[in-house]
Each structure stands twice: as C-alpha cells, then as structure tokens.
Design brief:
single chain, about 220 residues, alpha+beta, Ribosomal Protein S8, Chain: A, domain 1, 3-stranded antiparallel beta sheet, elongated
Length: about 220
C-alpha cells in the first residue's frame, strides 16, 4: 500500500513538472538620460504582469529584472525595449528643436543637476523645462517637476544678483568668517552689515563655532 502511494505521488510530481512553465530571468538597462521619460509609460506594464506571475525588481532605477514564466518574461521585455527605443528617438528629435541651452542640458553627460535633485528629494524627475537666459542677470532657470507633483526651480547664475527671493542661505564655516568661494561672494555682496551680524552671533554663542548643520 505504501509503495503504491509513493508511486502515485512521484507520478503526480512528474506530471506537475511537465506542465509547469519554464521560469527565467531577464534584465533591461535603462539609460540615465531617459529614465524619467519612460517611468510613466512603463508603469502600466510593470503593474499588469503580476497577474501573470512575473516578478519585477528595480535596481537603482537603472536596471529592471524580470523573473517568471519564460514566455511572459520575453513578451514583457520586448514591450519595454520598444518603449525605451521610441523614447530615445523622441529625445534626439526634440533636442534638435531646442534652443542651445536646452540642447546642452539634455546631453547625456549634463544630467548632474537633475540626478542630484532626484537623490536629494528621493523622487523621479518627470518634467524639465529650461528658460532662456535673462538679459539682465544672465540666469538660466531650470524647472523640475517630480513624481510627487512638487515643482523645484533651480536658477544657475550669479547668486549675488538674484531677485525676488525672501532669503539666501549661505553655507559658511563654523566661525562665520566667509573666507572664500560662494560664501565670500555672498558676504561681499551683502556688505559690512552681514559681517557685523556674524560677529555678534559668534559672541552670543560664547565665542564658540556654530555647530555643523545649524541655521542662524
């Protein structure tokens, strides 16, 4: 009786292994300069295949790994490959119609500002708009919109000439001496009043340096 049960169990297991689809892993590398553009288009595809037993893993936003039945994995990979190819072509086509400053910004090696904004806000940038240089201040304004719907405006230019702002945050050393770099340029533009106020802040702190990261 026991032998018969074992034989039946082995036959059942063999039958299940025959009908079980082959499972494989595939991966796709997503170029950094188009990652933000394909995020929305691939979302529906990535959410859908879960019903087809396809497990999808994202590594650093640059690699998508698919694990599951071979036929489903292959079909999904082909669809996303086609999206990436189409977006790459559109980026090149759009770049040809952009002004010089926008064209330069969209080059693959000039995404440092956008990538930094993504890292610091823990989001994906989905929209970028670059305004032309302001004739008076020579500023370049870059407008980002992230996956949370937040709008971040970055202006590249001489910070001492920026207009229409409530405050400028100056990253000085602990003694607030503004010895060099951007800190010195801001202090110079602000005039003697800033220097005097900094001395008073240090004096009120017992002549001790201001702790790192503290705003005064």
């Amino acid at each position: 009786m026991l032998v018969a049960e074992i034989q039946t169990a082995m036959l059942t297991l063999a039958s299940e292994q025959q009908v079980r689809p082959k499972r494989r892993s595939k991966f796709i590398r997503i170029p950094k300069n188009i990652r933000r553009f394909i995020d929305e288009e691939t979302k529906s595809l990535i959410d859908g295949p879960r019903a087809q037993e396809v497990f999808i893993e994202s590594r650093g936003g640059e690699v998508l790994i698919f694990r599951g039945p071979l036929d489903h994995v292959i079909k999904l990979k082909e669809k996303i490959d086609n999206i990436i190819k189409r977006v790459q072509e559109q980026v090149v086509e759009r770049r040809l119609r952009f002004a010089l400053v926008e064209s330069d910004f969209l080059r693959a090696n000039n995404y440092k500002v956008a990538l930094r904004m993504e890292e610091e806000t823990n989001t994906v940038i989905r929209y970028i708009n670059v305004d032309s240089n302001d004739e008076k201040t020579n500023f370049v304004k870059i407008i980002f919109q992230n996956s949370r719907g937040q709008t971040i405006i970055v202006e590249i230019g001489d910070i001492s000439k920026v207009e229409h702002v409530d405050a400028i945050v100056n990253g000085a050393n602990g003694s607030l001496e503004h010895a060099g770099g951007v800190a010195k340029a801001i202090a110079k533009a602000a005039g003697p009043a800033l220097d005097q106020e900094c001395k008073e802040l240090i004096s009120n702190n017992g002549d001790l340096p201001i702790p790192v990261g503290r705003a005064v």
